[in-house]
Records
---
Amino acid sequence: METKLRIAVQSKGRLNEDTMGLLAEAGIKVSVSKRSLLAEARNFPVEVLFLRDDDIPRTVADGVADAGVVGQNELAEREAHAEVVRHLGFGACRLSLAVPKSENYTGLDWFEGRTIATSYPVILQKFLDEKGIHAAIHVITGSVEVSTGIGLADAIFDIVSSGSTLVSNNLREVEVVMKSDALLIAAPGLSEEKRAILDEILFRIEAVQSAADKKYVMMNAPRACLDAIIEVLPGIKSPTVMPLAQEDWCSIHTVLDESHFWHIIGKLKEAGAQGILVLPIEKMIL
Ligand code: ATP
Ligand code: MG
């Protein structure tokens, strides 16, 4: 029988769409019928096991799944021994302590003797131990942010991304305890065959990710401006320069980092570039 790599993916929730999207961009097509727990890829030796994110770290650590995609926060909370293969960049958030806005927060000592509500008791306890703070932890699995308002706790420890949930519950973020994004994790001791499948997936993911923040830029300019234009392009060994039908003009093609983009476009125009076209790049093999 053909060896398949079984990957655990959150069945629904915040990580499901990005994870399935990443697999799809890596050319791994999985037909998902809503009810099934296990789905096979049509064109790649992979099967996807759909689970609640709480169960993914243990399932991978135990080798029931060979790999998985899960939030770093969830992996830390479950204390599962899985190998972290790659940070995937999506699902970014942080785990923070927050106190009611009305409190006069002066520092970590504020938490001494207080009650903190959270769904992440393991991570919180470790942090409190490290800091030598004694506080009671009240474990609750949902709607942690309302805990202070209803008198269940003095403070909360929860996931924050934009911070708007905190604001609408009259809370103030006072300490960031950990930052998190989605991780690709693997079971310990994968067979050589499975490791080879995982490596192929990684290779494809990298091609997609290296392209993600890059743009393909084309422009026309008089040949006389070429040196000035090349000067502006950052860290590019040599852009492609092609002649145009109109003599003394050329077309310059290069790859630009999205973060530099607006800054450089202005300079390119000043240097004499015209008709600048910017195209997305789907995949990039370095
Ligand atoms: P499940 O039903 O699978 O147990 P869940 O309700 O525990 O799902 P989600 O809310 O779907 O979990 O979040 C999954 C992960 O997405 C979180 O553990 C975290 O790593 C990440 N995440 C990113 N941004 C946020 C956010 N704003 N709120 C919650 N989680 C976020
Ligand atoms: Mg969960």
---
Amino acid sequence: MFDDVPLLPPDPILGLLSRFRADPRTDKIDLGVGVYQDEEGRTPVMRAVQEAESRLLLTQTTKTYQGIAGDPEFNERMLAMLLGPEHPALRDGRVRGVQTPGGCGALRIGAEVIRRARPAARVWVSSPTWANHMPLIGGSGLELVEYPYYDPVTRGVDFDAMMSALANVPAGDVVLLHGCCHNPTGADLDLAQWRELTALTLSTGFTPYIDTAYQGLADGVEEDVAGLRHMMAAVPECVLAASCSKNFGIYRERAGGVYFLARNTERADAVLSNAMAAARQIYSMPPAHGAAVVSGILGDAALRADWLQELGEVRARINAMRELLATRLAGNAAGTDFGFVRRQKGMFSFLGITPAQVTRLREEFGVYMLDSTRINVAGITPRNIEPLAAALHAVLAGSRA
Ligand code: LMR
């Protein structure tokens, strides 16, 4: 049976995390996997999460099966957070969806439903996109193709190239968009660009598939989803995948959801039945705990306010580290202007250094980032910024430590 099974290479992101953990150096710096770290380099349990978990322990009376779609209250509260409670798509009853095991589960169920609806649909993904989009979505059998997105010269979105390419996407194909905090580049569309893209969607007829894993980590919980809310108020159909891993800091609890906007309530019900059938075929029902915590926070005014407060602190810390890194890299020997780090959004930025420099940073200085040069800005702390900046200056100068 297993004689010819090949040994696969480690996952590009989680494999790097294993390498980091195995590195015995105590002064190593983790800018790899997209996990928030506080000033002390810890990934804390958020205050509201801790409180919601305590309440859950005291009040939970059963561990019996949930429904395939998970907790209806969680789905309702997630949609209100994502779209705003007064969103026209919700008012018209055109959105249905399921709670999923994290954002990955959401993306996969979304892809499974698209494949059931239209097996020949191609999914257009930004170049570059999150490394796991390809196996997650492609694993459902759908074909993936790339559209231009990031301009390494301006370090921002090449919006003209993106729009020109998407203008040729046929109706029936799907375009994957990052709701905010583009992973891996940190280069986001602004609201005016979301509006233009929405108009293009309406004229060409492709279906948007929006992955939103970082709501609240760029400018604010409401601000970060203004673009997708606009789009979903205008288009007839859309898929929205959401993760609670980052904004609630519950990475290991695997809570997320995938929501489908359909032309009318009857189509929405049909799509939901397919999402539930797909979930049943893969994992039957999502794990309950993380979603119960999120639902508990979103449904309680005081817990919600505290969560928003702490999320604001997380955001402010990331932005302060962006500022610090850009400042500390000024005047580097390579003459690179790292001011773009200030403009980019969310956890990630692309440093745009060479693969040899990435390797040297890891091997010589214990600084871990993805081979693509993506850094997790949330891995920078006031404590590691000096050695980090020194290491970056050294590799940029091409000198030995
Ligand atoms: C990341 O991009 O680092 C995170 O989304 C974690 C992951 O699963 O890859």
